[in-house]
């Protein structure tokens, strides 16, 4: 049975969450100040479902330590067009070159948000989706076997008739962060943010990966977005590929590796 039929949408696996105390995101103003000094490109990080910008804390520390200005965007998780519009506005507030990074469903968002913005020099997909125009997350994830996400989702009907999707806390660790310490995964499960179910069926906009260089970090032990899907979209975009032995939450379990890959994209597209 397709994910669409299970809950009406992909419900996309996402980045992980930390508590507010771990958030290391830098606001656009701080990033702008650094960019104006003519140094390195601003790295904009976009989380996926069941997450918030604090999930990038480990990666952010690595980037800040190496002098990169960083903005961790707040992804509303309401739908591709809506979310991409929010990120697009944020990108337009940043002067100078940008490396745009998306995890999981965040990949669909950055693919649309970056279109037409000449400042975006590279797109980095971390266990992420890179859809073609009109292609949905559901279509991509169901293209290959391997995702156990449908069984882990718990729907919450909303008063307006929509449905929010959460991952069952008991299944959260195994579902997309199996290589994250259990205590940390438990915190992530408690603090997760939902994605609207309809987001998974929504077709993406004009893809920026047709004109912007792409980099794809493929999580080979991912049971949320099959590695075969990650590889398919990477090869279709003629992107640079790096495979890692990691779960869907690769940027939490391996922040150094993830940050190094983002830095590589920044150097090679400068």
From TrEMBL:
Keywords (A to Z) from UniProt: Signal
Keyword Signal carried by entry: yes
Protein source organism: Micromonospora rhizosphaerae
The UniProt record lists the keyword Signal: yes
InterPro entries listed in its UniProt record: AB_hydrolase_1 (IPR000073), AB_hydrolase_fold (IPR029058), Sec-Metab_Biosynth_Hydrolase (IPR052897)
SUPFAM superfamilies recorded: alpha/beta-Hydrolases (SSF53474)
Domain AB hydrolase-1: 43-260
Organism lineage: Bacteria, Bacillati, Actinomycetota, Actinomycetes, Micromonosporales
Cleaved signal peptide residues: 1-25
One Pfam family it belongs to: Abhydrolase_6
Protein name (database record): Pimeloyl-ACP methyl ester carboxylesterase
Molecular function per GO: catalytic activity
